[in-house]
Amino acid sequence: MAFGFTPTYVEQFPLESISREDFFVLAVEAIDRLKWNLFHGSAAGLIANTRISWSSWGADVKILIGDTTVTLSSSSTGSEIYDWGKNKKNIRQFVELVQELERTISKKELKEKYEALESNFIPPDQDELVLPPSTFSQQVTQFFQVFIPSPGYRVTPYLLNLNMLLFLLMCIGSMAFFKMDNRTLLLWGANYRPWTLDGQWWRLLSSCFIHNGIAHLIFNMIALIVVGIFLEPIIGSIRYLIVYLVCGLVASATSLWWHDNAISVGASGAIFGLYGVFIALLSSNLFAKKQRMALLISMSVFIVYNLLLGLKRDIDNAAHLGGLVSGIVIGFALLPWLKAPSNKGFKFVLPGVIALGLVAGVFAVCQYMASHHSQYEEWKSVKDDQQAYSMIIEHYRKTEEKALAVYKLPKNTPDRVRVAEIRLKGIPYWDRCLRLLTETESLELTGTQREKIRLFKKYVTLRMRSYELYARTYEEKTDQYKPEYGRLDQEIELLIDSLSTFHMGPPREDLLK
User: Could you tell me which residues come within 8 angstroms of residue 88 by beta carbon, excluding any fewer than 6 positions away?
Assistant: First the structure.
């Protein structure tokens, strides 16, 4: 079986008892009998496409007719690595049919048919069968074209170059090339549940642009080039970029949901989203049936192959599936516009609503996860309870510091900004502090440590109640809550004095300035 990025089978057929002109006619008849698509005919030979179905790969069959030998080649048009012997089967079917036709068609009939066909030959200067192959310089130029923006192909080169530039900088910084260590990946923006859900939301997107090794980068960039060349001119550069970013966000959120403690990087989730869009478009009649089937098979093979590969290796299939499904959804949202380009509602509103809905869903899911599990869970893997206790307390201190950050707001901060800081940051951080303290209940602790946790839990509860009253004071512009938060402040002061026996305690400050 043939192997490679374009599997090909080649065979020589000797012209012993038949002239090259007769073979030409027999070849045309065989192509017609096989129901292949003949699209190139010249004095040098023929080129045809085989039939495409789910059970048979499409292929380009080239028939180069010399004076004494015919060179037959069949090359897969899909992106499969193996052709499972189908290219050889194409050539064998063709040869057997030519030999059968040779016994049934007379020499006179062959001559007449050749004269009729000759008038439609492609001129020699346009015949790709005899044109000289590209020089090495031309091949190099053609290769680098994929990295240069051009009309209809602007975003893909920028994405390629950005991914490669970031990888180069990572290599320089870490002195690694084949595999990055976890510290480097986290430093450059890897998606990691404890850190992402702790407010570092930018990791949802940054992780879509970094890779953990050269092989990882190369495979993803090849996949991006393949889909970008086809898809970007169809949906437009701006929509293409939006799809990449939105599907990347969804892929990252899916990875967070599925993996408790994994470090996830790579553009594959976003790329799967682009493939998902393409699959949705291929379900319509926007493409010719033959072209649609060839592309659909090629895309499906890429997706299935990579998903199966992810079952055996340390690959984030959750991100792949998240990107793929979101891409399919966006693709179906784009279909009405592609069928009716003049409809502005289909062009902007529907795709925009779907994209915004997906982004909103991403952050809703992440907020839900952030509010339903501990800020940090590394301690669960620590067998020593005292070490786990120390880790939880350290995380508590960091979260408490974030909760108290509202005290550092300038005196002239507008009320609406102060309220937003209290409700969106202050109170949620106190809630995380309380959940962290609750995590210690499953540990074997000393009596002193238990008392410390009890006092801290009471302290945090009072802080949350006082923050709520302060927020209402600013929102309603009233002093009616002053007695109550005054009483809470007194209780907090007493608790801080008690807690000072354990540590310095939080600062004694007032939110109202």
Answer: 1, 2, 9, 11, 74
- Please check the confidence at residue 79 and state whether its pLDDT lies above 70: no
Q: Percent of the chain at pLDDT above 70?
A: 78
The pLDDT value given to residue 94? 92
Query: Exposed/middle/buried for 23, CB within 10 Å: 0-12, 13-18, 19+?
Result: buried
Residues 6+ apart with CB under 8 A from 251: 208, 268, 269, 270, 272, 273, 319, 320, 322, 323, 326
In the chain the first and final C-alpha atoms are separated, in Å, by 79
Q: What is the pLDDT of residue 224?
A: 87
Residue 55 predicted with pLDDT over 50: no
Residue 468 Ramachandran class (φ > 0 left, ψ -120 to 50 alpha, else beta): alpha
Distance of CA 21 to the CA centre of its chain: 52
Return d(Cα 204, Cα 248) in angstroms, integer.
8
User: What's the predicted TM-score (pTM) here?
Assistant: 0.55
Amino acid 82: pLDDT? 58
Catalytic residue among 211, 216, 320, 395: 320
- Active-site residue among 268, 298, 326, 466? 268
Q: Which long-range contacts (CB under 8 A, 24 or more apart) does 217-223 make?
A: 217/163, 217/164, 217/167, 220/163, 220/266, 220/267, 220/268, 220/271, 221/160, 221/163, 221/164, 221/267, 223/268, 223/271, 223/275, 223/302
| Token pair belonging to 296 | 């659909």
CA 319 to CA 316: how far, in whole Å?
A: 6
Instruction: Give the whole-angstrom CA distance, residue 136 versus residue 28.
Output: 34
Q: What gap in Å lies between CA 46 and CA 25, rounded to an integer?
A: 10
Catalytic site includes residue 268: yes
* Residue 373 annotated as catalytic: no
Q: pLDDT by residue (tens digit) across 440-460? A: 887 888 888 888 888 889 999
Kind plus residue range of the DSSP H or E element containing 48: strand 45-49
Asked if the model's pLDDT at residue 3 lies above 80, the reply is no
pLDDT at 52: 55
- Judge contact between 79 and 226, C-beta under 8 A: yes
3-state secondary structure 110-124: HHHHHHHHHCCCCCH
Are 185 and 212 in contact by the 8 Å Cβ rule? The answer is yes
Cα(11)–Cα(72) distance, integer angstroms: 5
pLDDT tens digit string along 222-263?
Answer: 888 888 888 888 888 888 888 898 888 888 888 877 776 677
